Amino acid sequence: MSAKQLFEYAVVRVVPQVEREEFINVGVILYCATERYLQIRYNIDEDRIKAFSAKVSIDEVRAILGAFESICKGGADAGPIGAYSTAERFRWLTASRSTIVQTSCVHPGLCDIAERMLEKLYTEMVL
Fold this sequence. Notes:
By secondary structure, the chain is α+β, with helices and mostly antiparallel strands. The chain has four helices and five strands, in the order E-E-E-H-H-H-E-E-H. A hairpin with a 4-residue loop joins strand 2 (24-32) and strand 3 (37-42). The longest helix is centred in the middle third of the chain and has 16 residues, at 58-73.
């Protein structure tokens, strides 16, 4: 039996009106140092988001989540942040912000395989 690996994750939320502090979970970001793994899994359910708040710009949400995805991958396509280490990119993505897309606080756990854990969390927290 293989040893469990430490991972950290945050839930990604759409917050249509920041001042109301209401949100819809749309994704999960998971980081595992042992596997050098940083990935986001998200789903933009336009009908659900629009039912929650008709004022939300789906294009803005899509652009922000696309940027999150690029930052997870790293490299030049992610801009200056893409040059950061995997851990630094995770910390940057999960930093507190007051925008339409936010993350929960970071939660730790143990897993066998990071990718499987991301799918499990995504299913439980988003779908």
